[in-house]
């Protein structure tokens, strides 16, 4: 089902959320330039930065630098070295071709308290000093629209950080090591596909570090997430089953992942037909949901149970309640895949201030717990509800982007 229509968190012009400056600091005199620290971004601009229609965007860790220690994560702010001997010479080549060089990197460790802003700034200053080039930096510190693969920080660059010069995305490049590649030789499997998806969301040509620095012609094999939001939008939309007001009292039991569209379906399709909606999101426990179902049935009402109901045990409680009331129970199964549901959940968090994120671990747990409903459980009918993209939903352009890194 479609994502809920919600008031998207945007600025007054409909763009990405406005930055909220918190402080301004200066870099050390040996480098110069300005740091802008906002609620969501750290932005560095060198004094000699020149605007350009062509941007060479670069991830930082695993692309420009790697750890001296050989460990996956830096042990301290000094645990880094340039990725290879070609980095500086290649950057000079791109600069000579008119590219503006910009680092665009997710740095969630700052928000998590693993590193301070001051320590991170010092690390970046030291890297830029070794590179010796006028390089701008955008660093996302929170899980919002500025975090790759979402394109918020690139949009801030285009609107505020390029001296009024329009960026030609088709002539720009983004390079990063999170490219969805399997292990190859000594290189481990990429931890995500976030950099490739960032470029894909932007419509910017993508390069791996091997392609950029070593001029490798082929990026090698890679895989993208199973759910493609643009493909879902452009696909022929399936028809929802025809629903009519119940001729006699019944229970409809919803089954599906969080953010699969159960609540939207209940609100827009079942509630208008007179069904009483029972939801654990409202009542908090399954015990209260079962009691609420029994109370509604005693009043002669038809009920729609808006919970995940992933296994036969959880569904059986409502089958027994319907049986005790002498009414049939139908099972409506949301056919939204787990990947699609995770995308919907991410979109919901980004556009609903009152929704807390649901971790991938929870989705994995529900997937492992899932048991396909069968008629043997006591249902009078099992109805499959296909996922349908709501083309009228607010911020459809955001929904059609890849929102998850893998």
* Alpha-beta content class: alpha/beta
Give the number of helices. Answer: 14
Helix content: 25-40%
Shape: elongated
Span of the ends, CA to CA: 22 Å
Region (Disordered): 1-27
Protein name: Bifunctional polynucleotide phosphatase/kinase
Pfam families: AAA_33, PNK3P
Organism: Calicophoron daubneyi
List the main descriptive attributes of the protein structure presented here.
alpha/beta; 8-stranded mixed sheet; 16% strand; elongated; disordered N terminus; 31% helix; 406 residues
Description:
The chain has 14 helices and 15 strands. With 406 residues, it is an alpha/beta fold. Helix 10 runs parallel beside helix 11.
Structure, briefly:
With 406 residues, the chain is α/β, with parallel strands linked by helices.
Helices, strands, pairings?
Elements: E1 23-26, E2 34-37, E3 41-45, E4 54-58, E5 65-66, E6 81-82, H1 87-96, E7 99-106, H2 108-111, H3 117-131, E8 136-140, H4 152-160, E9 173-175, H5 194-202, E10 206-207, H6 209-214, H7 229-234, E11 251-255, H8 262-270, E12 276-279, H9 280-283, H10 286-298, E13 303-306, H11 312-325, E14 329-334, H12 338-351, H13 360-369, E15 381-385, H14 396-399
Helix pairs in contact: 10-11
Organism: Calicophoron daubneyi (Rumen fluke)
Protein name: Bifunctional polynucleotide phosphatase/kinase
GO biological process, one term: DNA repair
């Amino acid at each position: 089902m479609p994502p809920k229509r919600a008031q998207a968190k945007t600025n007054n012009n409909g763009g990405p959320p406005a930055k909220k400056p918190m402080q301004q600091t200066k870099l050390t005199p040996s480098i110069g330039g300005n740091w802008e620290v906002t609620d969501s971004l750290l932005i560095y601009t060198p004094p000699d930065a020149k605007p350009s229609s062509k941007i060479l965007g670069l991830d930082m860790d695993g692309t420009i630098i790697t750890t001296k220690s050989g460990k996956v994560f830096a042990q301290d702010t000094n645990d880094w070295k340039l990725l290879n001997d070609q980095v500086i010479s290649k950057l000079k080549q791109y600069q000579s071709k008119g590219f503006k060089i910009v680092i665009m990197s997710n740095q969630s460790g700052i928000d998590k308290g693993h590193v301070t802003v001051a320590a991170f700034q010092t690390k970046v200053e030291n890297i830029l000093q070794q590179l010796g080039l006028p390089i701008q930096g955008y660093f996302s510190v929170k899980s919002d629209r500025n975090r790759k693969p979402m394109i918020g920080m690139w949009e801030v660059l285009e609107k505020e950080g390029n001296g009024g010069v329009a960026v030609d995305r088709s002539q720009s490049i983004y390079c990063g090591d999170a490219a969805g590649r399997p292990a190859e030789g000594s290189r481990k499997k990429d931890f995500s596909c976030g950099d490739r998806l960032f470029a894909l969301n932007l419509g910017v040509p993508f390069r791996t570090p091997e392609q950029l620095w070593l001029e490798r012609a082929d990026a090698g094999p890679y895989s993208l997430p199973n759910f493609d939001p643009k493909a879902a939008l452009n696909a022929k939309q399936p028809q929802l089953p025809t629903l009519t007001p119940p001729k006699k009292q019944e229970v409809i039991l919803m089954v599906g992942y969080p953010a699969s569209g159960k609540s939207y379906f209940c609100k827009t399709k079942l509630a208008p037909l007179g069904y009483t909606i029972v939801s654990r999101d409202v009542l908090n426990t399954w015990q209260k949901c079962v009691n609420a179902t029994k109370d509604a049935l005693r009043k002669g009402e038809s009920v729609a149970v808006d919970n995940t109901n992933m296994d036969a045990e959880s569904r059986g409680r409502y089958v027994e309640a319907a049986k005790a009331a002498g009414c049939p129970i139908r099972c409506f199964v949301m056919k939204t895949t787990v990947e699609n549901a995770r995308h919907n959940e991410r979109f919901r968090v980004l556009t609903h201030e009152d929704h807390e994120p649901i971790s991938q671990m929870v989705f994995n747990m529900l997937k492992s717990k899932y048991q396909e409903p069968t008629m043997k459980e006591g249902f009078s009918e099992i109805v499959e509800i296909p996922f349908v993209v709501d083309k009228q939903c607010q911020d459809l352009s955001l929904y059609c982007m890849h929102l998850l890194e893998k």
